[in-house]
Amino acid sequence: MPDTSGKSGRSAKPNFRQWMLVLCCLMCAASGFTHADEPSHKTNTLRVLTYNIHHGEGMDGRLDLARIASVIRSAEPDIVALQEVDQNTERTGKIDQPTELSRLTGMDVVFGDNIRLQGGSYGNAVLSRFPIKRHENHPLPPFDKGERRGLLEVEIELPGERSLLFFATHLDHQQSPKDRNAAAEIIARKSASLNARPALLAGDLNDGPSSTTLAMLGSAGWTRSNKEAIATVPVKSPLRQIDFILFRPEKAWRVIETRVLEERVASDHRGVLAVIELSPSSR
What per-residue confidence (pLDDT) applies to 161? Predict the structure, then answer.
């Protein structure tokens, strides 16, 4: 179509206000990429993930730790509780999975060794974008011929001269609740000494919201990040929730969001992500 405006085809030179508008747009676009490298501490908000990784073996039978790391990174977490982690076992190629996941995600890691397996170890791990001050693995003894379980306690240094106690665990899977209830009692006794100190508990509890296990933890002051159940297993078409993130004391935290990750191939569980805000006055 011919130009009937009477003006030449040459564009007018942008003025100062137009240049400033372009600059602001570029700055806004760039800010959208900062979360992966900068923890969400500026607003006292934490992104917490719990994920049973099935020693890196997916529903397609592939051992693919890079795929697990990709799922973790997609959630942009600040702290991650991992269950069913192998360290130097034959079945996973003698790979130190905690160290490799630390490398692939760029996060610090600690590992809780619960079972000696195939020349290596098997247990829980915690990844953190924040410095880890100390960690200790507390054994949860089996009472009903089940697997030995553990409670991995990690003290994490938060900005503003604050610290957070983070507990990661994987409770017994047998139909009988005996071992799970015994573990919940141990966790409850340990919780009694925390007083008002902010703490998180995350992991595969192998029990549902209405179970005795969850009731015992609730009586010990632990609050679930989601009031309504959100199914995590079986992974392809989840029907029930057995993976949880809990916090205490209740008044120190505000839940912004809790959701299940959509990924359904990398592991036999779906991960749970909670976005929670810690009160600035909590120390």
Answer: 84
